[in-house]
Specification:
By secondary structure, this protein is of the alpha/beta class. It is built from four helices and eight strands.
């Protein structure tokens, strides 16, 4: 058996710690009925763009990224992180989003971040105080599958996942909610 070394084919990327105030994050999302792009820096969102469209996300994403970068007066070499929505959601939208993120990563030294859309909903609900702390020890988040069902996932009060993503038919949603909350 002939052993071949792949040493030269692996790109070694040094891990560089970046101070929070110097981080610049490009966020991409295309798993639902909209495509969105945001540029974030320590302290908040610099620029946000969204295009509502059920289909055709690939048509808009790259132009939106360039518009966001231009509006923020940022250059791609400034990016330290690229966050991409990892679903659940439309397979085509996810593929568009992740492919774009990979392309931007290949041309910059930015680090990758994958974001679960349902976890982002849970965190937003917690952050905005939209949960009833006295009654809830968990959150149940939903997203439309576009197939007469909903993606569902449970989280605790710190947005930690308590269950895998489930695809629940519309007719079974009330029973699923009852069953979920009776377990806790």
């Amino acid at each position: 058996m002939n052993k071949t070394s792949a040493k030269g084919s692996i790109k070694q990327v040094p891990v560089v710690k970046v101070l929070p105030e110097h981080r610049l994050l490009l966020a991409l999302e295309a798993s639902g009925d909209a495509v969105s792009v945001a540029l974030l820096k320590h302290g908040g969102c610099l620029v946000f763009k969204q295009h509502n469209a059920r289909f055709g996300h690939a048509e808009y994403l790259v132009d939106m990224v360039h518009d966001v970068m231009e509006e923020a007066n940022a250059v791609f070499s400034d990016l330290t992180h690229i966050a991409a929505g990892c679903g659940p959601g439309s397979f085509t939208g996810l593929r568009v989003c992740l492919s774009a993120a990979k392309g931007y990563m290949l041309t910059t030294s930015a680090s990758a971040l994958g974001v679960n859309g349902l976890a982002a909903l849970a965190l937003e609900a917690i952050t905005q105080g939209q949960t009833e702390h006295r009654h809830s020890r968990q959150l149940l988040c939903f997203a439309d599958t576009r197939r007469n069902s909903l993606f569902a996932q449970q989280f605790d009060q710190q947005a930690k996942m308590l269950s895998p993503v489930r695809d629940v038919p519309f007719k079974q949603i009330p029973a699923y909610i009852d069953e979920t909350f009776q377990r806790f």
